[in-house]
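hey m, so remember when u said the tokens were messed up on ur end? i reran from scratch. heres the input so u can diff it against urs
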Amino acid sequence: MQFFTTVDIPESDIRIRHQEGVVLLGSCFADHIGLCLEQAKFSVLRNPFGTLYNPYSIAWHIERCLNGPEFTNQSEEIFQNKDGRWHSWMHHSTFSECEAAHIVSNMNKAKNLCAEALRNAGTLIVTFGTAIIYELNKTGQIVANCHQQSDSMFTRRRLSVDEITDRWSSVITLLKDVNPDLQILFTVSPIRHKRDGFHVNQLSKATLLLAIDQIVRQNAEQQENEDAPYHATYFPAYEIMMDELRDYRFYASDMIHPSETAVSHIWQRFTDTFMDEQTKDIISQCGKISRAVAHRPFNPEDQAYKVFLRQTLEQIKNLTQQHPYISMEKEIALCNTQLEK
């Protein structure tokens, strides 16, 4: 008996494979999926600028990476707070530093790292979190992070569908100029923004869903006219959380974020949609090895455990010889450390 409504996901031409890198930008849900990809031994760059919630801030970073100048001590993105620390309006608080030179250096490292990844990646996964933006009154800039500054410094509003669509139309053109084979996968974060109020949150999510639908449709029409491969699609993470997992037992203790079980279920739907059988087989093998390495016996000096570790190393060797793009250096080091004890 079926106890929930299954979200139908159309068959996709997009395929995510271990041979190609994956870049993830956006809300903390991008981190959830990015972590799953990392654990499955994909080459991943996830949120190098920290969490980004609105479509404009994500677009801004992509354009700055690929076309913009380096950051300097005079860049309008950085400011010094009353506590003396330097912050960036466009970066997470983990970038904040006591010296301007340090934050600028970190910003440029992340910029260059992401630019290189975008030029070579096979897939870009973009997760929109909210259509609500904060414009800095002094400059009119849409910020990615308010850093707990006074509300009076900002104008708060909701982006329109056309604003998002127009901005991302130019971003996709730029991305395809630098990486013609890039696959772009859009999602909407299932995490609700309680601070905005649940009605405003629903309006915000609806705006994002309509904008992504328009972006994907426009891209499909363009690809059809150019007789080129289909490169952009949407994955319904939001709908899966709202329909398949609509019970509060699938939420974390804050009743806002998805639980580990929910993330695991969405990840399963994700792999079923975008990964072929060979890729899923590699994921399965990597999972078995990771669990074996994580195993801790009652007696680490037992000879049977040493044999187990050597067998695990042999499994790693066979896997990486068959698939040299898989990196298991961490697992190898852990096995060797245990063997040396």
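this time it looks ok to me. The mean pLDDT is 93. if urs says something different then somethings off w ur setup not the seq
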